[in-house]
Specification:
alpha/beta; elongated
């Protein structure tokens, strides 16, 4: 099969819709929103430019693709069902470029739920069937948007607890680290969701995500950074009896900078007590490493209850290495050490840990977090309740408002054609005929990308939101 055959990048049932629409249909107007009931009350829109550049821009229709699709659909659903004539019209009339217009809010913008984030309509009346044919592909913007939203909300949370505990914010950019590559559903999803995380944070172990800003968002700057760190295959190399020897080996071989040590290979409490014991080999090795001007040691317990284990580790580290109070009366380690919790986290667990730290007198600056599956794969389309619905149809020269209103009122769709306006820093979706500047700008029309944004601009918009107190 031809890779990325636009004729086949849809749901099977949509292939049948071109002959179901009412006679005289000339335009289909559809929109994307995060519906009421989303986990977070704003959605940060991100990823459309990637989708357009990878799948929609330029000549994407060819006779070879049409013939392949016709053959596949004939066997997949039935003979004479595939809209071969419609696709050949796009090839002949539009040189294989898609006759649609996509309007969207600027990427990186946090938009209140229940507002239009994107609209799609055809620009050629003979291609009325195309906007909703492309729904499955375009709606995949839910994924990077949801990850971008989640990371921004974690940053807001971290920012809040740094503030209330009198913490330094020097490490805010690294308080959530992306550990998700191994748990992602594919390398493409890891790249895209990993880049969404980079809108709010700079810490990542998902190296493939570093290519997205340059390849799709006109920005060659490096946005993600990591540190030297161990895993259990390293720490258990010499077995339980040789754990100390291996730890000393790791510290001796470590380069200057941050060194992250996983500490639960056997017993994290024994590890931390030995590390903090004055005069022990491990204590001296750590102190010698910390003599480096920029060196830091981060201890990573990798199992157990996140809240109770975190508090236990903080207390053990304080017993061994000392701590002092911030201006607001919360404990901060005396030395350049810290704690990393990276096992089984989601937004709620991070909130619970930070709340417990505050309740137990610990400043938020002592900890950083790592999320893997919670960042890349625990989200789904319903996290922010993203939906793509038709709201207007042009038939015989007249616009008709279209909507759904099921018994589940949360799924009621909007009706008509829209603009998105900003009133007092709050977005509102209104009729296209209402007054107010439209924040939905045309980003794609007839095969051409009209707004080619930079990753730095998108990141700036997201940070304005996540740094708000």
């Amino acid at each position: 099969m031809i890779e990325n055959n636009i004729c086949l990048l849809t749901d099977s049932y949509k292939v049948t819709h071109h002959y179901f629409y009412p006679k005289g249909t000339e335009k289909i107007y559809s929109y994307l929103e995060s519906r009421v009931g989303a986990e977070f009350n704003k959605t940060i829109f991100y990823g459309l430019q990637y989708i357009i550049k990878k799948y929609l821009e330029g000549q994407v229709v060819s006779q070879e693709k049409i013939d392949e699709a016709d053959k596949i659909i004939s066997s997949h659903i039935g003979e004479g069902i595939f809209n071969k004539e419609g696709w050949e019209y796009i090839l002949d009339k539009h040189c294989g470029k898609l006759p649609i217009e996509i309007k969207a809010v600027a990427e990186g913008t946090p938009v209140d739920v229940s507002n239009a984030l994107m609209t799609v309509e055809n620009t050629d009346k003979k291609s009325y069937w195309l906007p909703n044919y492309l729904e499955p592909l375009l709606l995949q913007v839910w994924y990077p948007s949801t990850v971008a939203t989640l990371s921004a909300e974690v940053r807001k949370l971290a920012n809040f607890y740094l503030e209330v505990t009198g913490s330094s914010k020097d490490n805010l950019d690294f308080m959530l680290h992306d550990f998700g590559y191994r748990g992602a559903s594919s390398t493409e999803s890891a790249m895209l969701s990993g880049s969404a995380h980079l809108l709010s944070f700079s810490g990542t172990d998902t190296i493939p995500s570093l290519s997205i800003p340059e390849n799709y968002y006109n920005d060659s700057q490096l946005y993600g950074f990591s540190v030297q760190a161990t895993e259990h295959s390293v720490m258990t190399s010499l077995g339980p009896d040789g754990e100390l020897s291996q730890i000393l080996n790791v510290i001796e071989k470590a380069k200057d900078g941050v060194l992250s040590l996983v500490i639960d290979s056997y017993n994290y409490r024994n590890f931390l007590q030995e590390a903090g014991k004055s005069g022990s080999e491990l204590n001296e090795a750590i102190l010698n490493f910390l003599d480096g001007e920029t060196n830091k040691v981060v201890f990573r317990p990798d199992s157990g209850d996140p809240v109770s284990t975190t508090i236990d580790c903080l207390n053990l580290l304080s017993d061994g290495f000392g701590s002092h109070l911030t201006s607001k009366g919360y404990n901060v380690f005396d030395l350049n050490i810290g704690l990393l919790w990276g096992d089984g986290l989601n937004y709620q667990k991070i909130r619970d840990i930070l709340f417990a730290m505050k309740s137990n007198g610990w400043a938020a600056e002592n900890i950083i977090f790592g999320m893997g599956g919670g960042l890349h794969t625990a989200v789904n389309r319903d996290t922010q309740r993203n939906a793509f619905k038709c709201s207007a149809q042009l038939r015989d020269g007249k616009w008709h408002d279209i909507f759904k209103n099921p018994l589940d009122s949360s799924k009621k769709s909007k009706t008509g054609r829209f603009k998105l306006i900003n009133q007092n820093n709050s977005f509102k979706t209104v009729s296209i005929d209402d007054e107010g500047e439209d924040c939905l700008q045309t980003v794609f029309r007839d095969g051409e990308l009209l707004i080619d944004d930079d990753f730095a601009n998108i990141k700036r918009r997201a940070l304005v939101y996540s740094n708000y107190l």
